[in-house]
Write a structure and sequence with these properties.
The chain is mainly beta. Among the domains are: about 1-40, no CATH class; about 280-520, 3 Solenoid (Pectate Lyase C-like). It has 6 helices and 38 strands. The protein has a 16-stranded parallel β-sheet that branches. A 9-stranded parallel β-sheet has the order 16-19-21-23-25-28-31-34-37, with no helix packed on it. A 5-stranded mixed β-sheet has the order 2-13-11-5-6, with no helix packed on it.
Length: about 525
């Protein structure tokens, strides 16, 4: 296609009048040089495949802007990308490439930093966006987020997220406009300064007249919305589909995510009665290079651990202050290491089926009541972190050594219960079930972890590495080796743990096998 573009422009030279062509032929060397120069440079602004295509109509308002070259392009450190309303001339969005995407080094926090004394306020009458709110506007007890890095509001979180304005994937440069800046039924013009993106040939000189029109109206909110990365669905991004669902809507909505690679930070709050239906965890992947360094918590307030404290921004995908969600057949992953959840859950009655979660440090953070069935989780130490109740059935957990869980529940809530699951360390370092010991002055005396009919590979014989109080509930029954199927040797388990036996613990085992017992009476369907 790109070669054809060059050829077409090359042939335009011969569209001159006969006299003009004759004059060129009288000086053949000059003519040849002119033709060659035209062939090499005639597509300086056309040698790229654009998506949306020039003049495209019906484009989703959550679209990314992509430019595909003959080879891998590079991104500059200066210049602007601007999006104008083509009718009014208003600049509706701009990206300054001189501003770094986000921090790459950890911050040093003051020793007296603490959790918010007043529960974080999730209430809102309108959803703030980049169109009506300055990114970095503080919420809760946080200080403003400084504009020294790129900032965009996602899901109404005004404190904003750092993000990459351009990502290069193979031969394609993907431009990320600020979220929610495009409107329905509008025509837009995109300009890209020279040097923002450099083509392998060096001939790309930017763009001045890239226009497209968005879909005429908001997709009608039926019981099903379709997300398609190619742009042929109701939305191009998972975030875009979630944004359109009203807060705590009583009407069930299914968001069907078609096969594709969805590289985006997803942050959602105040949602209910939503099913996110992927097309299979092996073909539907939502991911981003996010972690605690890239999107750290505020300098003045801690996050996580306590209910009502300031929300965290380090997960690739986060459902915050939500309830009655179902996530199926999809992968959520972070592309960075170091305190980086693939999935963060804060809410009640959230069920996962066939979901693959990939993270580092805390691959999954689960706060509230969470049910897992047929899921896979890959992470580092503290693979699962949470202060709520989690019931996992026939799911697989893998890490690179270290604890699988850091359970932080307090009575009367139950902790993490695993029935017919597998645990394995994928490195030479043995893993262990988990820990409950101190964390910066906090201890979890009610921490609870129960394993029933599970299988293990490369597990520390101690079972639990660090249990801070004898009051913890660490129970195990019928653990077997993944390779041989034989019962494992539990003679060296931590002294605060207990092995369940029959018939003595028959009633207790029956209770822990029941998700409703663990999840506060929730009868999981």
């Amino acid at each position: 296609m790109l070669i054809l573009c060059k050829l077409i422009n090359f042939l335009r030279i011969f569209a001159k009048s006969p006299q003009e062509n004759l004059n060129c032929m009288r000086n053949l060397p000059v003519f040849a040089a002119t033709v060659l120069a035209a062939f090499l440079s005639s597509c300086s602004s056309e040698e790229v495949l654009l998506s949306p295509a020039k003049g495209a109509e019906g484009v989703n308002v959550d679209t990314h802007l992509t430019l595909t070259f003959d080879g891998q392009p590079s991104v500059g450190t200066a210049g602007w990308i601007r999006i104008f309303d083509a009718v009014t001339g208003e600049c509706v969005d701009s990206l300054d490439l001189s501003v770094p995407a986000g921090p790459t080094e950890s911050r040093t926090y003051a020793p007296d930093i603490d959790y918010t004394k007043v529960p974080y306020d999730y209430t809102r009458d309108i959803v703030p966006t980049n169109r009506n709110t300055v990114p970095g506007t503080p919420s809760g007890t946080a200080e403003p987020t400084p504009p020294e890095y790129q900032l965009t509001i996602i899901g109404g979180f005004t404190d904003a997220f750092h993000f990459h304005p351009i990502l290069v994937r193979g031969n394609t440069a993907v431009i990320y406009p600020h979220n929610n800046v495009l409107s329905y039924g509008r025509k837009y013009r995109v300009t890209i300064d020279e040097g923002v993106i450099t083509a392998p040939s060096g001939s790309f000189k930017g763009i001045r007249k890239w226009t497209f029109s968005t879909a005429a109206e908001v997709p009608f909110l039926t019981d099903t919305l379709v997300v398609d990365a190619s742009g042929r669905g109701d939305f191009s991004t998972l975030q875009g589909a979630l944004d359109i669902v009203p807060d705590f809507s009583p009407t069930p909505v299914v968001i069907k995510v078609l096969p594709g690679d969805y590289e985006e930070i997803v942050y959602v709050r105040n949602k209910a009665n939503i099913t996110i239906l992927g097309s299979g965890a092996d073909v539907t992947r939502v991911h981003y290079a996010n972690n605690e360094v890239f999107n750290p918590h505020p300098m003045t307030v801690k996050t996580n651990e306590r209910a009502g404290t300031f929300p965290q921004r380090r997960a690739a995908v986060a459902f915050d202050h939500c309830r009655d969600l179902v996530l199926r057949d999809i992968t959520f992953a972070t592309d960075l290491m170091g305190q980086a959840e693939g999935l963060f859950l804060n809410g009640d009655r959230i069920a996962l089926y066939g979901v693959h979660i990939i993270g580092d440090g805390d691959a999954l953070q689960a706060n509230g009541s969470v049910y897992l069935e047929g899921c896979e989780i890959d992470g580092g130490g503290d693979t699962i972190l949470g202060r709520g109740s989690l019931f996992a059935y026939r799911s697989a957990f893998r890490n690179r050594g270290g604890p699988f869980t850091w359970v932080r529940n307090f009575k009367p809530a139950h902790g993490d219960i695993f029935v017919e699951c597998t645990f394995e360390s994928v490195t030479d370092t043995p893993a262990d079930y988990g820990r409950s010991i101190f964390n910066h002055g906090s201890v979890y005396p009610d921490a609870e972890m129960v394993l029933i009919d599970c299988r293990v590979r490369n597990l520390n014989p101690l079972g639990w590495s660090a249990l801070g109080e004898p009051t913890v509930t660490m129970l195990e029954y019928n653990t077997r080796d993944m390779d041989t199927g034989a019962p494992v040797d539990v003679s060296r388990r931590h002294r605060y743990s207990r092995q369940l036996t029959l018939p003595r613990d028959e009633s207790l085992l029956a209770s822990y096998r029941d998700p409703a017992f663990v999840l506060g009476g929730w009868a999981v369907k």
